TrEMBL record:
<dbReference type="InterPro" id="IPR000847">
    <property type="entry name" value="LysR_HTH_N"/>
</dbReference>
<dbReference type="InterPro" id="IPR050950">
    <property type="entry name" value="HTH-type_LysR_regulators"/>
</dbReference>
<dbReference type="GO" id="GO:0003700">
    <property type="term" value="F:DNA-binding transcription factor activity"/>
</dbReference>
<keyword id="KW-0238">DNA-binding</keyword>
<dbReference type="GO" id="GO:0003677">
    <property type="term" value="F:DNA binding"/>
</dbReference>
<dbReference type="InterPro" id="IPR005119">
    <property type="entry name" value="LysR_subst-bd"/>
</dbReference>
<dbReference type="Pfam" id="PF00126">
    <property type="entry name" value="HTH_1"/>
</dbReference>
<dbReference type="Pfam" id="PF03466">
    <property type="entry name" value="LysR_substrate"/>
</dbReference>
<dbReference type="GO" id="GO:0005829">
    <property type="term" value="C:cytosol"/>
</dbReference>
<dbReference type="InterPro" id="IPR036388">
    <property type="entry name" value="WH-like_DNA-bd_sf"/>
</dbReference>
<dbReference type="InterPro" id="IPR036390">
    <property type="entry name" value="WH_DNA-bd_sf"/>
</dbReference>
<protein>
    <submittedName>
        <fullName>LysR family transcriptional regulator</fullName>
    </submittedName>
</protein>
<feature type="domain" description="HTH lysR-type">
    <location>
        <begin position="1"/>
        <end position="58"/>
    </location>
</feature>
<keyword id="KW-0805">Transcription regulation</keyword>
<keyword id="KW-0804">Transcription</keyword>
<comment type="similarity">
    <text>Belongs to the LysR transcriptional regulatory family.</text>
</comment>
Length: 289
């Protein structure tokens, strides 16, 4: 049974005359009669009582007509929905974002995207970068935002931010008057780090080890502003991305360049073998561009 057969059958019922129905459908009368006959043969029962002046439904014809109307309506609704999604008049995106990244970059991005596509619903969940990556791989999120590098061949990676890491110290610290500090000079200082579930923890710990020492971490936190306040109290030093440093307002904190330059790189990630919605594709393009 074909959609075309049902569409033609509905028109014959509406017009109660096969000639008028053929005119409305812009096909010949014999062609239309053949379609209706094939539909009757397929269901194995007469659907229309034919006469010279009019065509009336049989009981079976009424049943087929009622179902045909529902089927055509659903097909049209499906087409309209797909059209809406293609043209981004509706849709939902599920995104996993680490809290630090979300607070830094995404309020303005999401606000701008919502203005451009007001009917696209964005569902955001905040996890650490490692958990975001795992959740995208397992299919929980359509889109994730994580910190590079990511060694995972099952993911598509779309870099969109690259920043320098900066050193922050108290104004009374012996390094506070320096413009540049080399990582090797930090061998004997005490650090305030992000917690282990954040990618920044491993990035900076690895960098210290590459420079020949294990960092002396005396305190860990999941909040950049709390880290800045501890540094302001002169309890240790820390290293943070430039965009975070630019948000520090405490006058007792000094921001210093680090050598060698250490990059903080962010990327949007998606699973390679998962369907990516039209809305999701547009969101990625929106963020990158």
């Amino acid at each position: 049974m074909e959609i075309r057969q049902l569409t033609y059958f509905i028109e014959v019922v509406k017009q109660k005359n096969i000639t008028k129905a053929a005119e409305m459908l812009h096909i010949s009368q014999p062609a239309l009669s053949k379609v209706i006959k094939s539909l009757e043969e397929e269901v194995g029962i007469t659907l229309i009582h034919r006469s010279n002046k009019t065509h009336e439904l049989t009981d079976a014809g009424q049943i087929v007509y009622d179902y045909a109307v529902k089927i055509i309506a659903q097909v049209e609704e499906m087409s309209a929905t797909l059209h809406d999604m293609t043209n981004l008049t509706r849709g939902t995106i599920t995104i996993g974002i680490p809290p630090i990244i979300g607070s830094l970059f995404f309020p303005k991005v999401i606000a701008a995207f919502h203005r451009a596509y007001p009917n696209i619903h964005i569902n955001i969940k905040e996890y650490g970068a490692a958990k975001v990556t795992k959740s995208v791989e397992e299919g929980e999120f359509e889109i994730g935002v994580s910190v590079l590098p990511i060694e995972n061949e099952s993911l598509h990676i779309f870099p969109f931010v690259q920043e320098k890491m900066k050193l922050i110290v108290n104004e009374q610290h012996e390094l506070s008057t320096r413009k540049v500090v080399h990582m090797k000079e930090l061998r004997d200082v005490e650090f305030i780090f992000y917690s282990e579930e954040f990618a920044l923890y491993e990035i900076m710990r690895t960098k210290c080890i590459q420079e020949g020492f294990e960092p002396k971490i005396i305190f860990k936190s999941s909040q950049w502003d709390f880290i800045a306040e501890i540094v302001a109290a002169n309890l240790g030093i820390s290293m943070l991305p430039e965009s975070i440093c630019n948000r520090i307002t405490n006058k007792h904190v000094r921001i210093i360049d680090l050598k060698p330059v250490t990059k903080w790189e962010l990327a949007i990630i998606t699973k390679k073998d998962r369907y990516l919605s039209v809305a999701g594709k547009r969101f990625i393009d929106f963020v990158i561009k």
